[in-house]
Each structure stands twice: as C-alpha cells, then as structure tokens.
Write a structure and sequence with these properties.
With 134 residues, this protein is mostly helical. Helices cover 69% and strands 0% of the residues. Helix 2 packs across helix 4, helix 3 crosses helix 4 and helix 3 packs across helix 5.
Length: 134
C-alpha cells in the first residue's frame, strides 16, 4: 500500500497557516518572532561580554570569575547595562575613547580587584606568619 501526503500550498509559511486555521494564532507567531529577536540580541550581547572578559583576563591577569565581576562592578557604578559596558571596553581597545564616567568606574573596579587580590596573598590575621620559629 502506497500513501501520498498532500501538503497545502503555503505549508512552510507560518503566517498563512495561522491565518487559515486560527486568526488568534497570528498573535502567537508575532510573539514567537519577538522572542526570537530578543534571544538574538541577548546572544549578541553575551558575545561582547565574553570578549570583554577575555580582554580583562589578559590585561589584569585574572581568572574568568573576577574578570566578569569587574565588568559587573563597572556596570553598577556607571548605571549602565553589562553588554553596553563590554561594548565600550571593546571599542576602547579599538581606539574609541571611554567616557569619563566609564574611566572612573574602571579605575575603581581595578582598585577593588587588586585590593582583593592582595588580601588573598597575605596570610590571615589569626595565623602566625611563621617568622621567628626554628
């Protein structure tokens, strides 16, 4: 027995399918397209954040966690979204100047990063340093 499936003329077009079957389905298609656009923007922003994290890791030298925390710190200080901070740092690497607010935020975030790093290198206050023992 051989079966043949007949497909409608616009089977590949979600708008035609939605309008033919259910007029309210058109709203679903529009909502899905909006969600796809938002996800694309999010992925693009994430790529810039990852690139900026890599730059921070090379320049400061630090691990991925502290690099991202530095970017988040700048973002909070400047009241700017994280992808925008990352894009500004990448653009600065390519020759565009950072805004004064962003420069100030970067300096403060770097000071905090280095202060935390120095705090980890020094022995805890409760532990003896080992000097004077034989």
């Amino acid at each position: 027995m051989h079966r043949t499936a007949m497909l409608p003329k616009d089977w590949w077009n979600p708008r035609a399918e939605a309008s033919a079957e259910d007029p309210a389905g058109q709203d679903d298609v529009v909502a899905l397209r909006a969600e796809i656009d938002q996800l694309r923007r999010t992925l693009a922003g994430r790529a810039v954040v990852d690139q900026a994290c890599g730059m921070v890791m090379v320049l400061t030298p630090c691990r991925p966690g502290p690099a991202r925390n530095l970017l988040v710190d700048i973002s909070r200080q400047c009241n700017t979204k994280l992808p925008d901070v990352a894009a500004a740092l990448v653009a600065a690497w390519e020759g565009e100047p950072l805004s004064r607010v962003m420069q100030r935020g970067l300096r403060r975030a770097l000071r905090r990063l280095y202060a935390e790093d120095r705090g980890r290198d020094s022995p805890p206050v409760d532990e003896p340093s080992g000097k004077g023992r034989s």
